[in-house]
């Protein structure tokens, strides 16, 4: 569990969400633009609802550093049609949610900072259920690049009710150990809670999907010491993070929930990643697993 300040922030976010929740109206078929109010923030959410099928899942899709959420929504439409799933792509603007809030999830929390953006995910999930009136279908989180970094912090520090978190081509990871400080590890997370949260993180259903050719080394991220320690490029970092997590799960004797898959002949292109068979397989696996419970 988070520390008292983070818990208080989360409680405030949820209360603000519940207080502002309106009666659900049917989402139109096809594309639409909705507005969610989370912690007093108005977030535009690009939505897609497939026609003539029974909804099987809710996909919440997090865009890369350009925050082009409508493009990510559009690029996910073929997958949504194939899996008969709703798509919600929230827009976290760069001006209101800079790197520390988006890529790092708003951690570590400082007295001057706003509510950590990672804490928005749980009420966003509830908002998506309310606005779509889909109370029981599984929720799957999908993030690419900067959006994947955001979801890494959600998975590590502020998970919701998602059945799977799909991480594609992030530049940094939350290391599964207590030697590295937040937001790249679990040091400085409350001592009494860090180990249980680390165990939960390792056992979470996290699908790491990497472009097999995402080996660019000229990104500004390469100048971050935390990124450099994790590998020379995104492909190396993803493989390193997965190996570290598997090793740590063995040491702590906890069930290991992560998987790793490479998308062949693909670099850092979000459209190709969102159209990949590997992503489709992960989503289908999550839906089938949830329906069998």
TrEMBL record:
<feature type="signal peptide">
    <location>
        <begin position="1"/>
        <end position="24"/>
    </location>
</feature>
<protein>
    <recommendedName>
        <fullName>Hydrolase</fullName>
    </recommendedName>
</protein>
<keyword id="KW-0732">Signal</keyword>
<dbReference type="InterPro" id="IPR029058">
    <property type="entry name" value="AB_hydrolase_fold"/>
</dbReference>
């Amino acid at each position: 569990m988070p520390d008292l300040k983070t818990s208080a922030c989360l409680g405030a976010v949820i209360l603000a969400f519940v207080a502002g929740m309106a009666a659900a109206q049917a989402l139109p078929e096809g594309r639409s633009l909705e507005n969610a109010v989370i912690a007093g923030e108005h977030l535009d959410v690009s939505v897609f609802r497939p026609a003539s099928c029974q909804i099987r899942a809710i996909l919440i899709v997090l865009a890369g550093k350009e925050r082009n959420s409508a493009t990510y929504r559009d690029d996910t439409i073929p997958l949504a049609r194939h899996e008969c799933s709703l798509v919600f792509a929230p827009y976290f603007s760069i001006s209101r949610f800079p790197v520390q809030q988006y890529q790092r999830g708003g951690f570590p929390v400082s007295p001057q900072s706003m509510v950590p953006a990672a804490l928005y995910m749980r009420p966003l999930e509830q908002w998506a259920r309310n606005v779509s009136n889909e109370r029981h279908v599984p929720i799957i989180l999908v993030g690419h690049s900067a959006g994947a970094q955001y979801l890494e912090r959600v998975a590590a520090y502020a998970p919701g009710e998602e059945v799977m978190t799909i991480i594609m081509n992030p530049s940094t990871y939350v290391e599964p150990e207590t030697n590295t400080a937040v937001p790249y590890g679990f040091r400085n997370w409350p001592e009494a809670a860090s180990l249980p949260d680390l165990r939960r993180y390792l056992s979470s259903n996290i699908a790491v999907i990497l472009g097999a050719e995402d080996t660019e080394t000229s990104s500004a991220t390469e100048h971050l010491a935390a990124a450099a320690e994790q590998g020379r490029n995104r492909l190396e970092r993803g493989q390193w993070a997965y190996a570290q997590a598997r090793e740590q799960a063995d040491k702590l004797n906890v069930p290991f929930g992560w998987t790793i898959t490479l998308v062949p002949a693909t670099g850092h292109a979000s459209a190709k990643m969102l159209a990949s068979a590997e992503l489709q397989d992960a989503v289908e696996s999550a839906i089938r697993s949830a329906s069998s419970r």
